[in-house]
Design a protein that fits this description.
Distance between the termini of chain B: 45 Å
Number of helices of chain A: 12
CATH class of the largest domain in chain A: Mainly Alpha
CATH superfamily of chain B: Cytochrome c-like domain
Number of helices of chain B: 11
CATH architecture of chain B: Orthogonal Bundle
Oligomer: heterodimer
Mean pLDDT of chain B: 90
Strand content of chain B: under 5%
Low-confidence stretches of chain A: 1-9, 30-35
Strand order of the largest sheet of chain B: 1-2
CATH architecture of the largest domain in chain A: Orthogonal Bundle
Helix content of chain B: 40-55%
CATH class of chain B: Mainly Alpha
CATH topology of chain B: Cytochrome Bc1 Complex, Chain D, domain 2
Shape of chain B: globular
Strand order of the largest sheet of chain A: 1-2
Structural class of chain A: mainly alpha
């Protein structure tokens, strides 16, 4: 339960129905540490080819890429988070046709090997220029939250350096337009199966309470974090 | 008789000029006519000795990048090298902006390979073969974005040729790598039938 205590702010799930809160708390507390399947169980050539394939869209060293859509940085991402998202794509709890197709051909061993590999990557952020004052106000929101709007500090779950932890994703160096898109469209894309609620529900009240200027500010701040 | 013929010729040229007057002045008009000589009326593409690509509706950043690549011999094409290196930056911007506005119907043509395979590959990629979904970068309607080209309405034999010959024509200076490298793994992993299918699909897109 150590994880739960360190995420006091996260347990402020006030806006959610009690049964949903319980479900989420249970999921967080029981976060399974999947057996680390050694990378060597996936043939090296196969793994390298698959990584190259991911990087085709996700950019050199998975730094992210501005395709037709902003395609997110995977470098340095929390393995548990990546695994959860791949599962969510497969089960259509998270809507993305391209990622559904990508994910459902991956074996569990391949997923394990990929997530370990992505975590090791550390390219510089793919930055979009942003005004200094926007970044500064984004930092303030990230570190202090918006108490008047019931928005907890992002740092409480995502960490002081936005590196994430376990199921909570790293945000440091993420593409700013990607962050903006995701926060603005949270409920349209995530938790799409009401009968199978998932941890994406935590972000729903937060995404809802932030206005578009605040989202832009936080996104700009995160984009330039190493 | 000769005078009448001359009068007709002048009026035809005049009409062409008038049609173009809304699309830039004097020398830009002349340059556009020159491009369209090979690239087809309204830049729709043309089946010359080689398939000459559609430029209509093309992303301006992509066009500019290709012209630079031709000039620097990073992209191999002797005809285009000659065309490109005499263009001033202002002319390039004007041409690119003009082509972007053109919207003739696709030249079409390849019905033989048309089926649902091309569309499936374009939208979903071929995950088992590690081929990324074209739509992720080129957009669901193949409109492109910024430095990523529009593919909608492109000549199918041009698309086929380019994909088959990708590494022979693009990124020719290893010490000056460019964004064409993104397409190398895709071009490499697609089989010829897959390339034909995608090319056929694209050639009919508006």
């Amino acid at each position: 339960m150590e994880r739960l205590e360190s995420h006091r702010y996260c347990s402020k799930l006030g806006g959610l129905r009690p049964v949903l809160q319980l479900a989420i708390v249970a999921m967080l507390g029981a976060s399974a540490h999947a057996e680390t399947v050694a990378k060597s169980t996936v043939p090296k050539g196969e793994l390298q080819a698959k990584i190259a394939y991911c990087e085709n869209c996700h950019g050199v060293s998975a730094q992210g890429f501005h395709g037709y859509y902003p395609i997110p940085r995977l470098a340095g991402q929390q393995p548990d988070y990546v695994k959860n998202q791949l599962e969510a794509f497969i089960e259509h709890r998270r809507t993305n046709n391209i990622m559904f197709n990508v994910s459902h051909v991956l074996s569990p061993a391949m997923v394990e090997a990929l997530t370990e590999s992505f975590q090791q990557l550390n390219p510089k952020p793919l930055t979009t220029p942003a005004p200094e004052d926007l970044i500064a106000s984004g930092r303030k929101i990230y570190e202090e939250g918006l108490p008047k709007s019931d928005v907890p500090p992002c740092a409480g779950c995502h960490g002081p350096e936005a590196k994430g932890d376990g199921q909570f994703p790293r945000l440091a160096g993420q593409l700013s337009d990607y962050v903006v898109n995701k926060l603005a469209n949270w409920t349209k894309e995530r938790g799409q199966n009401p009968e199978k609620p998932d941890t994406s529900a935590i972000m729903q009240p937060i995404a809802h309470s932030l206005n578009s200027q605040q989202i832009k500010a936080v996104a700009a701040y995160l984009n330039q974090l190493q | 008789m000769q005078l009448a013929l001359l009068a007709v010729m002048v009026s035809v040229l005049d009409a062409r000029g008038a049609e173009r007057s809304s699309r830039g002045h004097g020398d830009v008009q002349a340059k556009l006519a020159y491009c369209e000589d090979c690239h087809g009326p309204s830049g729709q593409g043309f089946h010359g000795y080689f398939p000459i690509p559609r430029l209509a509706g093309q992303q301006t950043e992509y066009l500019k990048n290709q012209l630079e690549a031709f000039v620097e011999h990073r992209r191999t094409n002797n005809v285009m090298f000659n065309v490109a290196h005499s263009l001033s930056p202002t002319m390039i911007s004007a041409l690119a902006a003009d082509f972007r506005t053109l919207n003739p119907p696709p030249l079409g043509g390849d019905a033989k390979h048309l089926g649902s395979t091309g569309e499936k590959i374009f939208q979903n990629g071929v995950p088992e073969a590690n081929v990324a979904a074209c739509a992720a970068c080129h957009g669901p309607q193949a409109q492109g974005s910024g430095e990523i080209p529009r593919l909608a309405g492109q000549l199918s034999d041009y698309v086929f040729n380019k994909l088959i010959n990708w590494s022979k024509e693009r990124g020719q200076i290893p010490s000056k790598p460019d964004i064409s490298a993104v397409m190398s793994p895709v071009a490499h992993s697609l089989t010829k039938p897959q390339v034909e299918a995608v090319a056929a699909y694209l050639s009919h897109l508006k």
